[in-house]
Amino acid sequence: MAKKDVPNPRNSITMKVRVREARRRWRRVREHFVAALGPPESLPLLVGNVQRGVIRTWCSPGGAYPRAAPLRRVLAARGIDPQPFSEFVRWVGPGNSVVRAFCLLGQHKWSSTTSSLNRAERRRKQKSEGPLRRRIDGVVEWPCQNCQRAERGRRNLERINKPGRRRGPDKRPRGNPQKTEQHRLNIADRHLSRAALGHPFHLCTLCGLVIYETRWHQVCRRTWRAYCRKRKLDPEATLPVTVPRRGPDSTRGLMRNYEILMRRAVGHESRRELLADQRLASRAAARRRGRPRMLKSKMAVTQAAKAFIRLIPGAWALVFSRDDGRNSRRDQITPLPTSLRPLIASGARDSLIVRLHAHEMDVAKIGKVTGADTEYVVAVIEKSAADRPDSGSVRSEERNSRIQNG
Ligand SMILES: [Zn+2]
Ligand SMILES: [Zn+2]
After folding, report:
1. Cα 133 to ligand 1 centroid, rounded to whole Å
2. Residue from 171, 147, 216 nearest 361 by CA
3. Rg value, the chain, Cα
4. For residue 124, how far is its CA from the centre of ligand 1 (angstroms)?
5. Separation of 143 CA from ligand 1 center, angstroms?
6. What DSSP string runs through 303-337?
């Protein structure tokens, strides 16, 4: 993709900086060079194959700075000590020029290139280490890669191989095997109660009870379709009249309440512990705007768990229809429909039973969805029929729903 004809602006900036720095460095040693060179008139036409005129420009304040190789030749030809200029030569020298180094770790000589040295120096600077020491003869005290790696390996080995360390596989049995089983169960329960459920809970469109991920229980969906078919309604375009809800938004805290219910039962966590756990509060808060809703009392924790139970259908399989293998464990923790018995006995689901019956769901299915047993369902339906002889029809409700659906 690089365009050959277009100069890279970054390159030119880098070059400008390099040139400016080279000028600065030459200025520092120029006086010394002029003094060591002697009077310019005494110079021959060529010094170390460099023209006298070129050398003069090096000497003048506004002139060019020398390149590494010519300068080295001139210094050699005039017998000038190169030591004061070595810093400058290294700077202007090409990146691939040889750098002689001495490795203190392995006590041996080695060599590298200027660009490698520059890179090493930059790395040291980033780690706020000082620059590598340079000897008078220009050799850099620079540990070589092999010795550095060996040193690092040796240090790690010492750290691992502490005296008293037992090697090899475990020879003693690991405590009580029963514990391992318990441990495994604990882990499973942790997953159950704390696993971030990737999807939200909803309240089923027909029955208003909780369901994970989708918006319909399958049985409710089928009931609604059959109901619509009979009345020549489009089941996709029409929705059942929404169930009147207690409270402003009962879906809001579903995830949090589910978590509380599971954790109280699974982890045997006290209400105080649950209250202290900010994670619950923050998870609920993440789904709503405004001030985070906190559970203010132990009473509130109990209420949260109860609120979820109020919305569970008659089986865990109705909540988590795609069984992730955890429904049986959930059933151990909160057995269904047994846990709903007091709720149903209180009559809290009577209106739901009537509603489902009005949508022509059969008695057995109503029992499955609500968690009530068949006799109870029948009794509720008969009682409501006696109270309101025309309650078998929901035609008037349907008209509303079509308007609502727009
Ligand atoms: Zn070495
Ligand atoms: Zn439903």
Report:
1. 16
2. 216
3. 42
4. 18
5. 6
6. HHHHHHHHT--S-HHHHSSS--S-HHHHHHHS-TT
Tokens for 31? 């006086």
Is residue 311 within 8 Å of residue 250, measured between CB atoms?
Answer: yes
Record the tokens describing residue 341, joined without a space: 């018995």
- Who surrounds ion ligand 2 at CB < 5 A? 204, 206-207, 217, 220
Cα–Cα distance measured from residue 256 to residue 315, given in angstroms and rounded to the nearest whole number: 20
Q: What percent of the chain has pLDDT over 70?
A: 73
Ligand nearest to the backbone CA of 368: 2
- For residue 279, the tally of other CB atoms under 10 A from its CB is 11
Q: How confident is the model at residue 377 (pLDDT cuts 50, 70, 90)?
A: very high
Which ligand lies nearest to the CA atom of residue 146 in the structure? 1
Distance CA 327, CA 312 (A): 13
Q: Which residue would you say has higher pLDDT here, 287 or 43?
A: 43
DSSP 217-266: -HHHHHHHHHHHHHTT--TTT--PPPPP-SSS-TTTTHHHHHHHHHHHHH
Joined together, the tokens standing for residue 84 give 């004061």
Q: In this structure, which amino acid lies at residue 50?
A: V
- 140-141 vs 98-103, strand pairing mode: parallel
pLDDT of amino acid 209: 92
What's the token pair of residue 315? Answer: 């089986």
Do 208 and 273 meet the contact criterion of CB atoms below 8 Å apart? no
Q: Is 89:72 a contact under the CB 8 Å cutoff? A: yes
Q: Residue type at 7?
A: P
Cα-to-centroid distance, 100 and ligand 1 (Å)? 13
Q: What is the largest CA-CA distance in the chain?
A: 132
pLDDT at 396 over 60: no
pLDDT band at 96 (very low <50, low <70, confident <90, very high): low
pLDDT band at 157 (very low <50, low <70, confident <90, very high): confident
Instruction: Tell me the pTM.
Output: 0.48
Q: Which residues contact 326 (CB under 8 A, 6 or more apart)?
A: 191, 192, 320
Sequence ranges of the domains in the chain: 9-92, 98-152, 201-249+312-406, 251-310
Residue pLDDT, tens place only, 107-131 = 999 988 888 898 899 889 888 888 9
